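Hello Y.,

Per our agreement to keep a running log of every chain we model this quarter, I'm adding this entry. I've kept the format consistent with earlier entries: sequence first, then predicted structure.
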Amino acid sequence: RRPRMTALIAPPAGARLSAPPLLRWRAVPRARFYNVQLFRRGVKILSLWPARARLKLRQQWTYKGRVRRLRKGKYAWAVWPAFGAKNPRYGRILGISSFRIVSG
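Predicted structure for the entry above:
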């Protein structure tokens, strides 16, 4: 079975990192913005909508009224393109990948 292609570029799947990564993916023609979601232990801990095909994670942020931190452990992330300004339509998921924070 061939591995499924992904549009997620960086960090490489399974990367071991000591600092917040710059998430990068292939741009989708005519996408107005993207929805990026970050998960830890199966729980969504971040959802953002950058206009460019990249997002620099931070060490700390607030999501749904709670302060979250990038701690040691495994994280999964996914990206969807969005089309249109009012009532945007989301395209197919570009991919799901993961990375591990090993210190910090």
